[in-house]
Task: structure prediction
Amino acid sequence: MDIIKETLSRIKPLSRELLQQAQAKLDNKTKPPGSLGRLEEFARRIAAISGSLNPDMSKKVVFTFAGDHGVTEEGVSLFPREVTTQMVLNFLSGGAGINVLARHVGAEVRVVDVGVDYDFADTVGLIRKKVARGTKNFAKGPAMSRAETIAALTVGIELAEQCRAEGVGLVGTGEMGIGNTTPSSAIIAAISGKTVAEVTHRGTGIGDEALVNKIRVIEQGLALNKPDPHDPLDVLTKVGGLEIAAIAGLVLGCAANSIPVVIDGFISTAGAMIASELHPDVRDYIFAAHESVEIGHSFMLERIGVEPILDLKFRLGEGTGAALAMTLIEAGVKVLKEMATFEQAGVSNC
Amino acid sequence: MDIIKETLSRIKPLSRELLQQAQAKLDNKTKPPGSLGRLEEFARRIAAISGSLNPDMSKKVVFTFAGDHGVTEEGVSLFPREVTTQMVLNFLSGGAGINVLARHVGAEVRVVDVGVDYDFADTVGLIRKKVARGTKNFAKGPAMSRAETIAALTVGIELAEQCRAEGVGLVGTGEMGIGNTTPSSAIIAAISGKTVAEVTHRGTGIGDEALVNKIRVIEQGLALNKPDPHDPLDVLTKVGGLEIAAIAGLVLGCAANSIPVVIDGFISTAGAMIASELHPDVRDYIFAAHESVEIGHSFMLERIGVEPILDLKFRLGEGTGAALAMTLIEAGVKVLKEMATFEQAGVSNC
Result:
């Protein structure tokens, strides 16, 4: 628990002075003030987070955390559990959606096993941080022990520390875990008090009957485990997941180490929301990549207090939305760094 | 007029068979069907437009057309008219917003003088296609002659032909012209029958009083010139602009030459709408980059029948929104080309 307390103690609100200096720099560029809209917001926030009016975005990393879920034995997903393992191998050989999109935007993908139910042994390229071989079925008891939750959070925090040491300028979150929209819906229901039906959707594409079952399973899990909505770690432990905990840790670690972090869709946002519940200033470091098709997502974004950047009707996860949003954020930073001023270009200001 | 008729005669609807083949290829990739949302739509349409399931996107070009507007003498803009010329020089030295964003996405910027009120002589890098030194003040008579309109359209058509010869895979539109939200609002008002107040906004950022004046000027221009809403070229001639006509020509030329074209904001969309009014199948070739802050923009997009890709609260023009949308479209094409299939990756399909 000490590492979490210590991490939380290092999270500070953004410097108003830097935000203002960045906007002043933007207002001197050859364009009507504010005319690049949200790109200017991105530039301002990245400047304030990184502490520089010339932020270095050359190193960008997407973390894809993988974990399995005991609750899949309740038939909540369309795909078999083995697909988590198969997709981890797909990530490592570069053929998955996140690989294609991260390559496109010049970001590196780091694949982290935090809880897959498979022994990867010495598989090349995998970051091996397995806390357990999947969670337990939360319809029958808590998904994790508190110690497992802390261990998975610590994985994320330590990866953020390493990014700081390497000079990574922008971090993205992603995940893979068959069944993991189920704990994500459970988390937002537990924390917000919304009904399960209001925040539960079709995941990879389940039909009507399976959706009714998924809602029933989550309701049963919440009734049985009674997570305390005022204790985010209790919610995470009882109805969450190992990859969700690792994402929460990564977001906390990024905030503590002054690294901007782009959160992907529904599952990543569940993790970021836990982080944000633990410390109010975490939201200043978060960029919400996109609005997912999952109906519970908008409640999470609202609760954190962030506006999604893209709306491309994604429901894949892995970090795919984060990768695309990262290139838009980088575009904003380049506007700040590379555009000519009115004076440099000899353009009349209004 | 012959070149326009000939161009229109070459525009065909997209192949349903190629659209289906592209979707089938996407559905075999390692992801739940449809889970990459609009990226899959982009990939499908690009495949059908280019006639290939492996479209080549290596060459991307943004055309920034520049022109001046006689109506600026009515005080419709915040910036002085000279800024059109100054910004053209800024584009050529690489310091403007469009330069930064096009570089970011790997697109080339081609700057075209189609109607700037300045003699650029042999300025290096400029594509010199001047039809006139700006339009006339449409509050006092027609902005252009029909011959000028045809000449500016032809500039755009010929640049598209050249792209075809060069193997350009994706074209973006952009513009620079102090005062050019005024003709754009006039065009959508004339064609849609909306009131001028419904489609007229603040451009580069004019205040309340100037907005009232801008609306009055457009109303006066429409009442005086009586453009025929069923003759798009009459609307373009009487209340349009040279750069808007060139964009209309570029869009027609792209459609005729099977090149996908990404249209930028309010002014570019006015040009694309003229093209779309001239031939119903033009819309199949158009990607709408973003939703502009200008209030008339959504009416134009609706009339063409296209959904904007981004909503970043831009109101700059130049092609800035188009550049960013181009990289998202290219991402969709890479999904189609680069992602592993279930069989290749050894992943179980549902």
